[in-house]
Amino acid sequence: MDIEQFRAYALSKPGTSENFPFDEVTLCLRVAGKIFALTGLDNEVFKVNLKCDPEYALELREQYAEVQPGYHMNKKHWNTVDFSGSLDDKTLRHLVDHSYEQVVKTLKKAERALLNL
């Protein structure tokens, strides 16, 4: 999955928006204003920081070399995933979905209702 496919997939999720709050090269994807994915557009290797359940994060790190503790993030709740590695698109979409869901479940009931989930 390349960066454009990732971006399109993430933006297809209900209530998702994108912005560059830190600088002109760090793309943030948000649901209801909360970040669920970040990536640097100027990195040599396409990697994405994704939110993750802490126990599942540890499992993923043990199972896949492409999944590492979140770079510049809370390592308990974030993974950095190498999208240019050997993980297939189905697995990458699952990880994006999981990150999105991790944020959605923290939203207030009224905010979730606006997403029609």
Report on this model:
By secondary structure, the protein is α+β, with helices and mostly antiparallel strands. The protein has a single domain, classed as Alpha-Beta Complex (Aspartate Aminotransferase, domain 1), CATH 3.90.1150. It is 35% helix and 26% strand. The protein has helices at residues 3-11, 54-63, 89-104, 109-114; strands at 16-19, 26-31, 34-40, 47-51, 67-69, 78-82. The protein has a six-stranded antiparallel beta sheet, with helices on one face. The longest helix has 16 residues, at 89-104. It is globular, with a radius of gyration of 13 Å. It starts with a helix and ends with a helix.
Concise overview:
The chain is built from four helices and six strands, in the order H-E-E-E-E-H-E-E-H-H.
Q: How widely separated are the two ends? A: 26 Å
Helix count? Answer: 4
Stretches where pLDDT falls below 50 for ≥5 residues? Answer: none
Strand content: 25-35%
Cα-based radius of gyration, to the nearest Å: 13 Å
> How many E-type strands?
6
Strand order of the largest sheet: 1-2-3-4-6-5
User: What shape does the CA trace take?
Assistant: globular
Helix/sheet category: alpha+beta
**Helix-strand string:** HEEEEHEEHH
The residue fraction in helices comes out at 25-40%
Q: Which fold name corresponds to the CATH topology?
A: Aspartate Aminotransferase, domain 1
